[in-house]
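Table S2 (text version). Query chain:
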Amino acid sequence: MLEDRDYMRQPEYGDSAWRPRFQPRWSWTVVLLAAYAAMFLAELLVTRFFPEQAGVFNYLALSVPGIAHGFVWQLVTYQFMHAGFWHLFLNCWAIYTFGRELEALLGGKKFLALMFSSGIVGGVFQILVALIWPQLFGGAVVGASACAFGLVAAFALIFPGRELTMLIFFVIPVHLRAQTLLIISAVLAVAGIVFPMDNVANAAHLGGMAMGWFFVRKILQGDWSRLTGALRPAKKEKSSLRRTQLEPLPEKEPADFVASEVDPILDKISAHGIQSLTPREREILETARNRITRA
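Corresponding structure-token output:
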């Protein structure tokens, strides 16, 4: 029966799509996490056994003097370096948590574009703030946190009502919506810039979130109405990232419904990826899930 099929039991994202029948054994999310870990291990080994060579990392970390000397690659390389184990762990945890679902939705190319653009824009924000307040923010910066906050912003815009459970100090559970998490993160980043009290690159966090917002609103959804002319509500367009009002589906027997409506969509997911689905096809899969739930 329909509910016996494993690919019909759990949604891929939100309430409107499903996992493809064949999951890849690797993903760009995992590849990036492995690269962060490998780079961190390299930093430890070089610092421990070849301390005279450790200065090479100064050319990879993001800094105002480096950018002033034309080391523009630092806007990318700093994303792969981390200041300690917990710094690495927290960034990897955030990227793994939000990255898997976003990669499944967007596809590998767009996911990588989101990741690296968030990191680069976050780095630019940090450099600009450091130029304004060099005494407070003039140190070198490392870490993938701008990428992580870019994912948080993109996730919150695509799934604003998604309920999340965060563990404060890895002990205290706090339930909040993705949209609320983004707002809190943005407020903390701004507060960290205005009232700096630690070594956290809050400007990079804010820049990553800004790029995540821009990537979803302007690149994926193509909503440019708020950048030109008078402010006005965005036009309602058919988009895979927006809910649309669709005509109700006809009632059919479960077996007939699966054969005629669901199976072709699952074949399309296997062949072209979940991001290729139209709003109508997503609605069909949602209807199938509801019928399973009622059965």
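Notes on Table S2: The mean pLDDT is 79. The first strand starts at residue 163 and ends at 168.
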